[in-house]
Amino acid sequence: MATAICIQNSALFMYVLGRADDALILGHRLSEWCGHAPMMEEDMALANMGLDLIGQARELYTYAAEVEGAGNDEDKFAYLRDVQHYRNVLLVERPNGDFAQTMMRQFFYSAFADCYWRAMMSSTDPTLAAIAAKSEKESAYHLRHSSEWIIRLGDGTDESHRRAQSALNDLWPFTGELFQANPEDDALFAGRIAVDPRGLLQPWTENVTAILRSARLTLPQSQWMQKGGRSGQHSEHLGHLLSELQSLQRTYPNATW
Amino acid sequence: MYTQALNASQSDELTGEDAAKISRFEARVAAEERIEANDWMPAAYRKTLTRQISQHAHSEIVGMLPEGNWLTRAPTLRRKAALLAKVQDECGHGLYLYAAAETLGTSREELVDQMLSGKAKYSSIFNYPTLTWADIGTIGWLVDGAAIMNQIPLCRCSYGPYARAMIRVCKEESFHQRQGYEIMVTLSRGTPEQKAMAQGALDRWWWPCLMMFGPPDQQSQHGDQSTRWKIKRFSNDDLRQKFIDATVPQARYLDLKIPDDNLRWNEATGHWDYGDIDWQEFNNVLAGNGPCNRDRLAARRKAHDEGAWVREAALAYAEKQKRKTTAAA
Ligand SMILES: [Fe+2]
Ligand SMILES: [Fe+2]
Ligand SMILES: [Fe+2]
Question: In CA terms, which of B121, B133, B197, B290 is 20 to 30 Å from B47?
Fold first, then answer.
């Protein structure tokens, strides 16, 4: 393997890469919990969701490599790109924090992924439609699991309520970016290759607010939304995540593992 | 093995129990019948099995930590997914084994508390550090390999729930073993650095793996009764020899050197002779002085303590829901 790769621009390629990055980074975050969860059942569940996401990432990277046609593969995309070449939303690179933070992040992302992948099942791109069909089932489970926890934590004890509310306050500003469309994506939307995420905001908001209401949690006043991940402007956290994820490939260039 | 600390003294006597019941029980065991949770069993049988199964469960759970140490650094996405799936399997084994132990009348909470307080043991092997990626290959190859050697006979253990748990667990362990060996094949055919990494891992893990089978037969005070009760089918030394005989050709295929200058094929016995095991080291690790004992327990305690508010929240929520349904009824 080379020591670093640059990425070519093409709307479909960049689009698929961004979705793969979302799945990989969130899957990686979930894998950090393994062996340290609040209960063994959650060790299982978090690993399970992490595995689904890493699986989605692999399929998407493989497809991105095919679209790009430059001889790259899933591992080159994951292990040899620097921070500024990653296109994931900022939400998924947020650190795990406590269990409430992790579940709130999962809930926001899964509520998006659930309606996103369902809509993507009718993509005119057969590969994306096939990936969507599998991912939709997985996301539906992730959404159910995380929603149940948000309700339990929000309506559990005073402490769990307090932690869930502060997770909500901290992570809410990172939800807006999920619905951001890049101008380059217009052709993909027009060709019904990809769904315009702006159209998913309303169903997402309805779904999310209903769960938050059952959890007795309140939306923060401020509607300010952070963005940047989709254009390669990341938080400080991603660099640390990548330095760990990429350490072996970077230390031993050109080795096969 | 995963339950090697059982080879400590045991003072249970078959006193005060109905002699007729005992002889009926022993006849059933001798006839290879399976004992089930609701069947009558001697108190000492129940106690031995509770300890053995829960120590096995603790080992699966603590065993997540050394391998979990490489989850975020696995060198390819395929390896990352496979390792995450493996560590998840180990957690499943732990849960499955706690459930089997619970059929004997002690709750999982109580068993876990015994582990967290340091009262109950887990396998000494998990008190060694995973220092390079080759350790992940070596653990799969040797640690899961040694576990299989021990657990295949346990599939015929006289206690039904344990035997059935072992059948399911063994299938997954042999998959882990193949996966680990495949990592070793890749490394040993890789760059000189990778090959050195593989040799280094074998050097560090070989002797601790041999210790997994427990003390030599002359020192094991525990074998007799467990053998009679058909919990244990082979002695520690027999299983250890079986493991060595199976592993030597595998190491040769990898072109790696087993770190034992006394390793020699014995034409007369048809087995590999091997050098002396440092039982002092083994006893030290069991006593809590291995390189990672403190870190492992600290990590499990931290997860337990920091997760307390989550478990409390789940309980509180469940109780609220129960009150609501009773109020509505
Ligand atoms: Fe296991
Ligand atoms: Fe095991
Ligand atoms: Fe295993």
Answer: B290
**Residue A123 placed within a domain:** yes
Q: Using the beta-carbon criterion (under 8 Å), do B313 and A152 form an inter-chain contact?
A: yes
Residues A87 and A238 sit within 8 Å (Cβ to Cβ): no
How far is ligand 1, taken at its centre, from the CA of residue A36, in Å?
Answer: 17
Residue A256 lies in a domain: no
Residue A114 falls inside a structural domain: yes
Total number of domains constituting chain A: 1
Task: Given the cut 0.85, state whether the ipTM is greater than it.
Answer: yes
Does a structural domain hold residue A90? yes
- Interval A56-73: pLDDT, tens: 999 999 999 999 999 999
When mean pLDDT is compared across A181-185, B17-21, B95-99, B202-206, the lowest value belongs to B17-21
Q: Residues A97-154: pLDDT tens digits?
A: 999 999 999 999 999 999 999 999 999 999 999 999 999 999 999 999 999 999 999 9
Find which of B78, B84, B133 to mutate to test the A interface (most A CBs within 10 Å of its CB).
B84
Looking at CA atoms only, how far is residue B302 from chain A in angstroms?
Answer: 8
Mark yes or no for CB contact A58/B77 under 8 Å. yes
pLDDT, tens digit (0-9, with 9 covering 90-100), for B142-176: 999 999 999 999 999 999 999 999 999 999 999 99
Residue B9 has pLDDT above 60, yes or no: no
- Domain residues for the domain of A115 are 11-218+226-251
B294 contact partners, CB below 8 Å, separation of at least 6: B288
Q: Which residue does chain B place closest to A249, by CA atoms? A: B75
Residue with tokens 């990425």: A7
Question: A16 Cβ partners below 8 Å, 6+ apart?
Answer: A60, A63, A64, A67, A128
CATH code of A148's domain: 1.20.1260.10
* Subunit contact B313:A256, Cβ cutoff 8 A: no
Mark out the alpha helices in chain A (DSSP H runs).
11-31, 40-68, 74-79, 90-93, 99-120, 126-154, 158-171, 186-190, 201-214, 236-245, 247-251
In chain A, residues with a C-beta closer than 8 Å to the C-beta of B310 are 38-39, 42, 99, 153, 160
> B324 touching A, CB under 8 A?
no
